[in-house]
Structure formats: C-alpha cells, structure tokens
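Researcher: Quick test of sequence recovery. Tokens follow.
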C-alpha cells in the first residue's frame, strides 16, 4: 500500500512554511510571508498571557493534614495570581508514597466544595492529589466523577494528566493548562475550520514539548535525524525574527535540567534546552557611536513579517540582516541594486557581528570544549557565510529542505506517552516496575494516535545596631521563607559570637529540621507545623520536669524502653498553651540549621520568622548528611535528648534517653517511615558554647557567598562551574550526560546509584556515584578507583548554569558537571570520620578518605560583635 500523505505547517513571526510528505519523502514545499491576520491571532494569544487575559481557576487539593504550608498559587506572580486565582480548597484525601491514603475522601465535604465553587461563579477547576500519579483512579478520578455528576458544565484538569512527581510544579502546570483552555479551544477550532475550508477531513495534531505547551521549536530535530543521520550535533535554526540553538543528543533534543518557569510560574514540564537569540533575516541593523569608532548592533528588534515591505532590497527604508547578506554576496533576494551603495565597512562589521553571535551561541550550548558538528536550518541561514570558519564547529551542514525544516519536522512528529511514578519495591521488582511503566507509556501513546506497532522507548542588609543580617527576597529564594517576608515578618541572621552577649540573646539555641526521603518531600509538602510542633514538644518535656533522661511528671504517660531508646509514642501533656519559656524550663533565644543543604537549610529561616527569633549563622554538618548521628554536636558528645519527631497530623514521638545518637537515628527513622517518610525533628537546645565549639561556623554566609559568586559569573559571562570551584577550592570530577539512575526509597532514605557518561576531557570515561539522600562515593568504572568520598561534598550541577541538581531530580539525559568540595576540619578528625567517613556507610577499609583540598572558612556576612563583648 502506498504511503499516506502528511502536511506540516510552521507559522513563524516572519514566514509561514508548508510541506507535503509521502511517507518520509518531501513531495513539495513552499515558504510564504506570514499574513497579518495570522500574526494578529498569534499576537492576541500572546497578549492574553502578557496581559493576564485568562480565566480564573479553582483548585481542589486532596491533601488531608499534609502539604498545607504552601497553598495553591503561592508562587504565582501577583498580577497573574489576581487574574487566575479563583479560589482554592484544601480537603481530605491524598496518598502516601506507597499508595496508602493520608486520609479518605469525604463525599459531603466535596459536595460542599462543589456547591461553593458553583455559587461563586467558578467554571474551571483543577483537581490535584498528593502522589496522584501513583494511583490516579484512587482519588483524583473519583473526585472528577463527583464534579461531573454535580456540576455537568464544569471544565476540569486532573493534575496527573498534566505533570509529573512534584506537587507544586504539577499543580501549577495544571492551573496554567486550565486557565488557557478557552483560548486553546478557540485556536483548535480555528485550525479545524481552516482544514474544513480546504476540504481536508484528516486528523490533525499540534506539536508539543513533551507536555501540554504547544511549540514548534523542536520539530527541526526529527527532520535532521531522518535526513542527515546525525544524532549528536549543535542545531541552529535561524528564522526571520530569532535563532533557536540547541543540542541533539542520541537523536533527540537535550532536555532542560532545571524546573521550567512559564509566565513566572515554576512547572515540571519536560522542555528542550534551547537558547534563543535575537538574530533573524528581519533583524534590524543599527550603527552606534562607540569610543573612537562606530560599532554595529544586530537585533534584537526585527521587522518580522514586514520584512518584504520594510527591507531595503524590497524597496523599504530599514536596514536588515537580509540586506547585509545580499550586499555581502551571500544571498540573491529582492533587488540587489538597492544595497550596492551600502558602506562596505558597515557590511563587513555586520557580517562579523552575525558570525560572532552564532559562535557565542554555539559556545553556550555545546556538549564539550571540543568542536562540534553544526547543522544550519531555516530560511535565515543565508546570513551565515558558508566559506567562513565558525569557531567551535568541526563541520557545518545544511540538511536537505533546510529552509522549511520545522514544517518537515511537524509532519514527521511522533506521538508520545510519558509515565512518571514512585513505585513500592516491597511489592515488585525494579525491572517489573519499569516494564509496567513502559507498557503504560506505550498505551498512552497509542491512545493519543500512535500506531501500536511503531511505538518505541525513547549584597546583604545589616542592622546597624544589632548587627543582624536581615534577609531580603533577593537573599533567599525559598517559597515558605518568601511567604514569611510577604507577611511582614523578618528573617534575621546573627554571628555565633553574638550569643550570650545581651540579655535578649542569653539562652539556648534550638535546632530544627525535616527528616525523611527527599523524593517524598517533592510531592508531600510540609503542613507548616511539623518542626515547630517538634520544638514545642521538646520544650513541653522540660516543663514536665525533664532532667537527665527522666520526667518528674509521668502522670498518664506510658514510657517505653527498647533498642537502646527510652521513648514515648505520642507525648501530649495537658494545658501547655499558656506556658512561657520560663515555665518550660528552657529559654530558646535563636534557631539553627541542622544541615546546610536542601530543605533543612531553609526551614530554620521559616521557623525563626514565625517565632520572631534570629537564626544563627552556623549548622551542624557544613553540608547535608542522611543520618542524625552525623550532627557535629553529637559527634562531639553532646546529648541529643530530649528529642522529638512530629508529623502533619500532630503526632509527637518523644525520646527521653538513648544509648547513642545512632540509636536515636534508628528509632526516629522507623517512626518517620510510619509517618509517611516526612516529619519535623528537634533536639535538646544547645548552649552558646556548644554552638561555637561543635558546629560549623558561618554556614549561611558560605551559602550566600557561593550563590553570589555564581550570579556574578552569569553577569560577567564566565563559567559558573569555574566560579564554584574557585570559591570553594574544589575540583571538577567529570562533565557529561547522566546515563543511568537507579533510585529506591528504603528505610526512610532515597538510595541508589547514578552514572555520568563523560564528554570533553572525560570522553570514554563513566563516573559512578553512590547516594543515600546525599552523594557518598564517586569512582570511574574504567579502574574502579575512588576519586571522591564523604565527608567531602560531591555535588552535581547543571553543566551550563551551575544550578545544583538534587538526587531526587536526577534523570537520564541531563548534561551535568560533577564537583567535589572540601569538608570542614570538624568533620575530618579521626573521631568524626568514624561517623561520617566512608566506613560509616558500610564501605570496606580500602575506600580511604583523602581530602580534596583545604577548606576555606568564609567571612561571615553578619558582623561579629566588638572584641569587648566576647564571653
């Protein structure tokens, strides 16, 4: 049977391209100037987003007692939130990571919610449940059925159909999807009517970036792989208005490694890593007066679809990049006579600047320091002199039909299906889980129109009187902390030396943190009370007469003993609401981070703001470690008790006495798993002397200065990787692509391995990294030699931006750099290495810790007090 015909159309800002294919062969193609009516339609869509001309959305979050601290719309820009936020409703429901219910759905509560939305005029609703991608039919689908029965005209978006694991990002993506639905319906209907007018009754598809956002920027990749057979190259698509530059890896566009922001909102759409620059055939050329000479500016403004009226070669009065190409003899368009009088120096400078822009873009996106194959596509390729050497290019090709590559790619586009879920490996094997996920993804692709037989896998503010560092939104980008600032609260950071120097700072320092698996906390957000409840529990224990492992008041309490721990399953004393710190027997004057990594580096900022307490510029680890006994004070012999663990439901597990800090870790880890692998923890408050002698000093300052160095690198167009290594006296272990990730959540930890396939200087090498919440040991597979291990910090960052990528966010195909940074001296003593060295994690004696370099103690941002104030 003869191959079917397919039509591909690419509507650009300057030109609209159309192709007809039979099978994979181009039968005919045409390039036309984009008409004003089409451009007007596109412009209206863009204005709808820019002007926030969107429908309001109501969000129903199925969360029970969990994930309440950060409500829906919490990280939307304020102007967008005013338009899109209709209402939100936090109701019973939600799942744990293993599919068990956080709480059951309550039908009457949901009916009340539905009536409220209807009475308030809401018609667009998002339903999002914690861990709904694991079992969407368990709750999200049931709630949707109830909505349709009670409210037939409602428009629904179910979060599991839009995004992946990561509650806030998936919820945001679902909201954006729902608020754009009316506009999308009108757009699709316009396409349908246009096809009907042409007598075409065939199915039609809109190309997409592996999510719900419609885009044509990646169509070109499918055409290139088919026509050239090249699977690894830098692709430059030069249009009439902009150029899109990206990397082809293994036949597919390289994916962006970080969360993608759409209209200022964080989402977890899978997006290609594409750099767009203001270079196209319609780019306007300007000559500016520099020092002692004229310089040429190319773009970013463009004539767009007006090129054929405004460009010089078409009889217009605007000098464009196309005019320069014709004047330089690179193209034959319009009337060359209109540009024969152009200043030859101007033409040469413009051509030089165009090539410089192309070379700079190549340098930003290419996979290694080595030259890469370059593939040029798009009508704007006439701007590039094919006879001229291009820095960074090992070869330059223009594939067949390069002028209409996006339209060809649209016609060749493949239907996809994606599955992203957490699996309980106690009930299945990893291979079985992967096999089921592949089968489900294939079914999704077929349901979307794929042919079954063709499916394949594929600078800081310092208070002048107190010396406090008062954090601003620019200093911290943590949602919960930003919400505290928006409410008028202050986040104040003090140097450890200020403790005990004034009556207000004389007392103890509370350490608060979250305990659990990071993968779980991506989806099951905190309720906002866990760590404060744990701290309150510790204070209540002191109020009940706690002393040296004993309670003087045990009325109604069942104190248990086992596995080296004396504990209470759920400590709830009576009538403590009106107690002061003095009543509780301990005065807390500041809070501190247990570890300066991830969520736990931020949580004390939130708690300090809520309790109006300063945060000490120190932490217990100088990094993140997965287990409690690795806290510096405990290594130095400080008693962790009393200690408490609290969950979103208010359970407060208390420990009165332990044989060792490791026994505390084992007990709390078991309790934490039963709490859903996420809980707040607090220990016995530390004295000022203990903070200064057994904790890592100036940790927050270190983090701030490291971030400042990276931002400074962006500003000055230097490598952020180099900036990190220079700031921290670290070493680059490898650059390359994540080629394998094996991750499981067991015993309350995210454990696994990942492999990085080297590129550039590390070509033909594969680096293997073991992790347990944090990265533990790195070795090259070629000789199995350990090149870095704990307590030094092995960190994985985006190869281009230097953005850290946590273990729970690693995935195949990410382009990364692996760095190792030196550990603080406190962690390198023989005593400390017994607790945080490789043998503490079960590695044999031949895995020997060798420091990567000398740790640099950062200068604190908050000033130390004058010498006379020292105690």
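Model:
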């Amino acid at each position: 049977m003869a191959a079917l015909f397919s039509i591909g159309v690419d509507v650009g800002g300057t030109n609209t391209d159309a192709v007809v294919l039979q099978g994979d062969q181009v039968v005919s193609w045409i390039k036309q100037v984009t008409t004003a009516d089409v451009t007007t339609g596109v412009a209206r869509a863009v204005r709808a987003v820019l002007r926030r001309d969107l429908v309001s959305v109501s969000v129903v979050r199925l969360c029970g007692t969990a994930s309440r601290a950060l409500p829906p719309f919490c990280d939307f820009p304020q102007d967008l939130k005013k338009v899109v936020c209709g209402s939100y409703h936090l109701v019973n429901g939600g799942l744990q990571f293993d599919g068990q219910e956080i709480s059951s759905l309550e039908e009457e509560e949901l009916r009340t919610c539905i009536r409220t939305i209807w009475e308030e005029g809401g018609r667009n609703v998002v339903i999002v449940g914690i861990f709904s991608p694991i079992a969407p039919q368990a709750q999200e689908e049931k709630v949707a059925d109830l909505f349709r029965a009670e409210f037939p005209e409602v428009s629904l978006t179910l979060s599991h159909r839009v995004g992946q694991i990561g509650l806030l990002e998936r919820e945001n993506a679902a909201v954006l999807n729902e608020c754009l639905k009316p506009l999308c319906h009108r757009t699709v209907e316009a396409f349908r009517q246009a096809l009907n007018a042409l007598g075409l009754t065939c199915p039609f598809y809109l190309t997409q970036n592996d999510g719900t956002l419609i885009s044509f920027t990646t169509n070109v990749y499918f055409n290139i792989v088919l026509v050239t057979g090249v699977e690894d190259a830098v692709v430059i698509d030069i249009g009439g208005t902009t150029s899109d530059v990206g990397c082809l890896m293994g036949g597919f566009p390289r994916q962006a490694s970080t969360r993608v922001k759409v209209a200022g909102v964080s989402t977890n759409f899978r997006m290609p890593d594409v750099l767009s620059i203001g270079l196209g055939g319609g780019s306007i050329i300007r000559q500016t007066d520099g020092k002692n000479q004229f310089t040429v500016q190319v773009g970013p403004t463009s004539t767009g679809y007006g090129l054929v009226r405004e460009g010089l070669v078409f009889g217009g009065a605007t000098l464009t990049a196309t005019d320069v190409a014709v004047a330089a003899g690179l193209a034959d368009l319009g009337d060359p006579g209109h540009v024969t009088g152009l200043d030859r120096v101007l033409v040469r400078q413009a051509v030089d600047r165009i090539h410089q822009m192309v070379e700079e873009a190549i340098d930003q996106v290419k996979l290694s320091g080595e030259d890469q194959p370059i593939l040029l596509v798009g009508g704007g390729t006439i701007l590039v002199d094919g006879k001229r050497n291009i820095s960074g290019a090992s070869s330059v090709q223009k594939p067949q039909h390069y002028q209409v590559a996006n339209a060809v790619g649209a016609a060749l586009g493949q239907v996809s299906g994606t599955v992203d879920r957490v699996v309980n490996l106690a009930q299945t094997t990893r291979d079985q889980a992967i096999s089921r996920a592949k089968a489900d993804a294939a079914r999704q692709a077929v349901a979307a129109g794929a042919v079954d037989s063709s499916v394949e896998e594929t600078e800081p503010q310092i208070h002048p009187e107190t010396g406090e560092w008062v954090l601003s939104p620019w200093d911290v980008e943590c949602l919960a902390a930003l919400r505290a600032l928006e409410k008028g609260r202050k986040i104040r950071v003090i140097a450890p030396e200020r403790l005990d120097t004034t009556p207000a700072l004389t007392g103890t320092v509370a350490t608060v943190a979250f305990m659990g698996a990071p993968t779980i906390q991506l989806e099951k957000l905190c309720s906002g009370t866990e760590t404060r409840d744990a701290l309150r529990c510790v204070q209540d224990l002191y109020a009940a007469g706690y002393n040296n492992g004993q309670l003087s008041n045990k009325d109604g309490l069942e104190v248990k003993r086992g596995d080296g721990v004396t504990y209470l399953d759920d400590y709830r004393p009576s009538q403590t609401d009106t107690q002061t710190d003095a009543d509780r027997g301990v005065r807390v004057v500041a809070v501190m981070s247990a570890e300066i990594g991830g969520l736990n580096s931020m949580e004390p900022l939130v708690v300090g703001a809520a309790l109006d307490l300063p945060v000490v510029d120190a932490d217990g680890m100088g990094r993140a470690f997965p287990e409690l006994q690795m806290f510096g004070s405990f290594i130095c012999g400080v008693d962790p008790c009393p200690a408490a663990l609290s969950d979103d439901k208010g359970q407060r597990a208390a420990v009165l006495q332990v044989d060792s800090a490791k026994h505390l870790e084992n007990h709390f880890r078991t309790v934490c798993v039963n709490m859903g692998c996420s809980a707040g923890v607090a220990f016995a408050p530390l004295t000022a002397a203990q903070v200064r002698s057994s904790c890592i000093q100036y940790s927050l300052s270190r983090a701030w200065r490291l971030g400042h160095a990276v931002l400074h690198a962006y500003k000055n167009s230097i490598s952020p990787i180099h900036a990190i290594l220079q700031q921290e006296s670290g070493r680059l272990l490898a650059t390359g692509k994540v080629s394998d990730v094996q991750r499981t959540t067991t015993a309350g930890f995210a454990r696994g391995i990942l492999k990085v396939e080297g590129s550039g200087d590390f070509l033909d090498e594969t680096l293997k990294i073991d992790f347990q919440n944090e990265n533990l040991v790195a070795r090259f597979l070629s000789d199995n030699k350990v090149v870095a291990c704990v307590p030094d910090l092995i960190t994985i960052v985006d190869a281009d931006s230097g953005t850290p990528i946590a273990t729970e966010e690693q995935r195949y195909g990410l382009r990364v750099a692996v760095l190792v940074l030196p550990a603080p001296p406190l962690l390198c003593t023989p005593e400390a290495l017994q607790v945080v060295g490789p043998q503490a994690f079960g590695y044999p004696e031949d895995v020997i810790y060798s420091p990567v370099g000398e740790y640099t103690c950062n200068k604190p941002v908050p000033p130390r007090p004058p010498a006379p104030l020292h105690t």
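Residues 461-700 form a domain with the CV3147-like fold fold (CATH 3.40.1610.10).
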